[in-house]
Amino acid sequence: SDEKEGEETTAKPKPGEDTRERRERPEEAARPGWERRTPTDDRRKRREDSEPRLFMACDDNQDVQDPPEVVDKSGMFPIGRSARARSLLCPDIMLMTYQLMTHLCNVCCTEKGQATLSLGMDLNLDWMTLDDFQKHLNGEDEILSGPPLSPSELRDAVKSGDYMAVKLALNSKEDYNLDQEDISGMSLSMLAAAGGQDDILRLLIKKGVRVNGRQKNGTTALMHAAEKNFLTTVAILLEAGSYVNAQTQGGETALMKACKRGNADVVRLLLEYGADCNILSKHKNTAMYFAKLSNNLVVCDLIKDHINMLSSVAEDTIRAYFESRLVLLEPVFPLACHRLCEGPDFSMEFGFKSQPQPEGSGILLFIFHANFLNEITARLCGPCSVHAVVLNDKFQLPIFLDSHFIYSFSPVPGINKLFIRLTEAPTAKVTHTVIHTHTHTLL
To answer: How far is residue 187 from each of residues 195, 246, 390, measured CA to CA in Å?
Structure first.
């Protein structure tokens, strides 16, 4: 019996050691034998715990609690949240959120086991600051060069979205024709725009590529991007000076193509840059017709509200100029818009039906200078870019000798041809000319 007691004493751990062991392995002690973790489970648990988690900003005094980890149906790792999260949207937080979310979704491990980020191209970055990101957007992050590509290889690289191949080629000493076209007239800028390749498009624009080239059917790079709903691509092209009111051989504009596809955000951006809602296609259809074809009520409302806003601003500007001594009766043709950066000449055709006019009434042509960004504003005074107005090959005279905003207007029954010569302003981005004509009565 003494020997058995000695064996039991030897096998029985000390109270202090038992407590320490249970504290080091609390889960293992509480689990039944058949549920205990294997070494493989422990390694998997440590790897999952090492994954970065995204925490929303919260009060410093609040305790942060992790919710139970549940893997969603998409297989994404869970995102830890604070107990009382706030939505603090400052640039630094937004940038951090983007980087962490990218890290969660696009983590790749090198041979050394170091996590790096993949930004959709052949760039491996441990971290990216705001300054580095801006340099990347400007194509100034690295001055790299490599063996030159043939014109066909460069074209294939642009089409496939091979950013690094395009960048190495453009930084080489090879003199490329960046406006090269295929049989249909598709240029490099059109290929990048049609594929939504924003980084490549920025590189091409920086190297001087033309953004207003046309295919044989009249399609432009802006039309390709607008039709495929590439919002950022549309913004890049507009900032680079793309003509927003250019038309194909069928008379369609970028706005019509965006309306046809129901791309509301692209429609809104094009309207802010002076897209004309009342341009007629070859079959006499406006942007509203294509918006209705898409069955998108948001797009229809955007077009309708924009036309109503333009008409309201124009009529209020006229009344303010004449101090309510002029009564507007009805427009002769719908409002037309022209961006000064798209050329010095504006022309259009319109139909006119002669009707009996009240005594003391007449027709005037109003040419506004307008700004569409943020809030639509218009003026009929100050510096004027109008040089001449020609209707059916006859010069129209300004009402006031010191101002060329308001002209006498004498259309004939049937089809009339209007031509306006403006001051050339290729760098103007927000100044537009709004052409409006009204029958009126003086009080």
So the answer is: 12, 17, 36
d(CA 302, CA 275) in angstroms, rounded, equals 12
How many other C-beta atoms are found inside a 10 Å radius of the C-beta of residue 86?
11
Q: What are the pLDDT digits (tens) for 236-256?
A: 999 999 999 999 999 999 999
What's the distance, CA 238 to chain centroid?
9
Query: Which token pair is 310?
Result: 């333009």
pTM of full prediction above 0.70: no
* More confident site: 218 or 27: 218
Q: Which residues pair with 107 in a beta bridge?
A: 117
Instruction: Report the CATH fold assignment for 324-442.
Output: Jelly Rolls (2.60.120)
Distances (CA, A) of 241 to 170, 206, 238, 430: 22, 13, 5, 11
What one-character-per-residue DSSP string does 118-153 give?
Answer: E-SSS-EES---HHHHHHHHTT-S-----PPPPHHH
- Calpha distance 266→340 (Å, rounded): 21
For residue 49, what are the CA distances in angstroms to 42, 43, 104, 110, 377? 11, 10, 13, 20, 56
Cα separation values, 395 from 143, 369, 409, Å: 56, 21, 10
